[in-house]
Design brief:
Number of helices: 10
Largest sheet: 7 strands, mixed
Shape: globular
CATH class: Alpha Beta
Structural class: alpha/beta
Helix content: 25-40%
Order of helices and strands: HHEHEEEHEHHHEHHHE
Strand content: 15-25%
Strand order of the largest sheet: 3-2-1-4-5-7-6
CATH topology: Rossmann fold
Number of domains: 1
Oligomer: single chain
C-alpha cells in the first residue's frame, strides 16, 4: 500500500470517529435539533406531502433528517452501520442500487463544500432524478455578519480566490473543504453555474436565506450554549425573519433548489 493510500485511510478513520462523535453531540443538543427540524421543514415546504416522495440524502453521516422523514434513503462515503447506502457520490451515476430516473429529491445539508467537484457531482446526480426532480442543498451564505465568523471563528477553510469550482486537495471526507465554494457557484460565478444548464433549469433556480445567528446560538456541533429551549424557539423565528429581510447583512446559510430538465 502506498504512503498516500495509508494517509487517506488514516484520515478516513479519523473522519469516521469524528462523524460518530458529532452525531451523538447533535442528538444531545435540543436547540440544534430544533434548528435542523426547521431547516428540513423549509427545504421541503413546497411539497404538499413529502412523506410519499422518493428521497435520497447524500452525506447522511451526522444528519438527523431520517428522524423527521422516515422515507429518506440515507447515504455517505463513510461506512457507518446506520446508513442505507455507502458509496462515493462522485460516482452516483454508476450506482446500480438506485435506478436512473427514479428519485424525486436528492438532498444535501452542508455537504457540497466538502466535495472535490460539486458541479461534476450535480451533473452526474441528475441521471438518478425523475424529470422535474429536485436537488435541495443548504450551504453557508457569506453576508456582512457571517463572513468574519466563517473566516475567523469556524474551523473549515474559506477560499474566495479559487480559479475553478473544485477543491485543490482531498484529504478525507470531512478534512477536505472550502465552505465558500457553493456560495461562489450560486451567487458569484455565473459561468460556473451555467455548467449545470445541460441537466438543470438554471433559469428557474431557487435560492433563499436560512437563519442568521440562531445556528451559532445553539453552540453548533462542538458546544452547547445554555439557552433555555423555550427561549431559543422564540428567538429562532425572529432570527429567520431578519436573515430573509436583510440577507446581505446577516444571513448565514442558504438553501438552493435545482430542477432537472
Amino acid at each position: 500500500m502506498s504512503d498516500a493510500s495509508t494517509v487517506l485511510r488514516s484520515q478516513e478513520a479519523k473522519d469516521r470517529a469524528a462523524t460518530l462523535r458529532n452525531r451523538a453531540r447533535l442528538g444531545a443538543n435540543k436547540n440544534l435539533l430544533f434548528w435542523y427540524r426547521q431547516l428540513y421543514r423549509d427545504q421541503f415546504r413546497d411539497f404538499p406531502n413529502s412523506s410519499i416522495l422518493s428521497i435520497l440524502e447524500v452525506g447522511s453521516g451526522t444528519s438527523p433528517l431520517k428522524q423527521f422523514l422516515s422515507n429518506v434513503t440515507t447515504s455517505d462515503v463513510l461506512d457507518l452501520d446506520y446508513l442505507d447506502l455507502v458509496f462515493d457520490c462522485h460516482e452516483i451515476d454508476k450506482l446500480d442500487a438506485i435506478k436512473d430516473n427514479s428519485i424525486d429529491v436528492i438532498t444535501l445539508t452542508n455537504v457540497l463544500h466538502h466535495l472535490k467537484s460539486p458541479i461534476e457531482f450535480l451533473n452526474r446526480a441528475a441521471s438518478k432524478l425523475k424529470p422535474g426532480g429536485k436537488v435541495i442543498a443548504t450551504e453557508p451564505f457569506f453576508s456582512a455578519l457571517s463572513t468574519p465568523i466563517f473566516k475567523y471563528l469556524h474551523h473549515e477553510p474559506v477560499d474566495f480566490d479559487i480559479s475553478e469550482p473544485k477543491l485543490g486537495e482531498v484529504q478525507g471526507p470531512l478534512a477536505s473543504a472550502n465552505i465558500a465554494l457553493p456560495w461562489l457557484i450560486f451567487f458569484r460565478r455565473r459561468e460556473w453555474l451555467q455548467r449545470l444548464n445541460e441537466n438543470f433549469d438554471v433559469g428557474a433556480l431557487s435560492a433563499r436565506p436560512f437563519s442568521a445567528l440562531s445556528y451559532i446560538a445553539t453552540g453548533g456541533i462542538s458546544h452547547r450554549l445554555p439557552i433555555p429551549h423555550f427561549l431559543y424557539r422564540a428567538l429562532f423565528s425572529t432570527d429567520l425573519a431578519v436573515s430573509r429581510g436583510f440577507p446581505r447583512s446577516c444571513a448565514a446559510f442558504f438553501t438552493v433548489i435545482l430542477t432537472r430538465h
